[in-house]
Specification:
The strands form two sheets. The chain has a seven-stranded mixed beta sheet, with helices on one face. A three-stranded antiparallel beta sheet has the order 1-2-5, with no helix packed on it. The protein has 174 residues and is mainly beta. The longest helix has 7 residues. It is 10% helix and 27% strand. Strand 6 and strand 7 form a beta hairpin. The N and C termini lie far apart (43 Å).
């Protein structure tokens, strides 16, 4: 039995489809929001929320990720099936998991912002943007009809599979 399997996971996470799962064996320290252009493109959003741990405190528990070397100092792991961005690995030797891929993203709180020279200008005003609940835009009937094909936010047996999607919802080429 490997050392990782004898240690208790402190946090777990994974991709949207469930093909990849990981465990953290310590709580992340120095969680941050990176606004650099490379992180923006890697996550397809205005910033990446990253929760780092030492490589020895991280393990893939299901599947093998695809890796994209986004620069000569950065490697990014993602799910080759659903595309979920999962980690950033750089010069520090840490594995920075994408906070949104954690089963409980609220368990980590950013300590600082990084790469602020590339911060999207409107983020300074985001607190003033009105909030809306999902039910404000969708009828109860539509909400009740939604079938979620995502992996649940908890560990599942190794043979877990998502429900078969209705053909109209299957992913299709661009």
């Amino acid at each position: 039995m490997s050392e990782q399997t004898t240690r208790a996971a402190v946090m777990t996470g994974g991709c949207q489809c469930g093909a990849l799962r990981y465990a953290l064996y310590v709580a992340p320290a120095h969680t941050h929001i990176c606004h650099c252009r490379m992180c923006q493109k890697a996550v397809g959003g205005p910033f990446a929320a990253l929760a780092p741990v030492a490589a020895a405190d991280f393990a893939w528990t299901r599947g093998t990720p695809q890796t994209y070397d986004s620069s000569n100092i950065a490697a990014r792991d993602f799910c080759g099936t659903c595309g979920t961005p999962l980690t950033y690995r750089g010069l520090s030797g840490n594995v920075n998991v994408s906070a949104g891929s954690l089963d409980n993203p609220s368990a980590v709180r950013p300590d600082f912002n990084l790469g602020v020279e590339s911060r999207v200008a409107w983020l300074q005003e985001i607190a003033a943007v009105p909030d809306r609940l999902t039910v404000d835009d969708f009828t109860p009937e539509l909400l009740a009809s939604i079938v979620n094909f995502q992996h649940p936010d908890h560990e599942t047996p190794a043979d877990w599979t998502a429900p078969d999607p209705v053909p109209a919802y299957k992913c299709r080429p661009g």
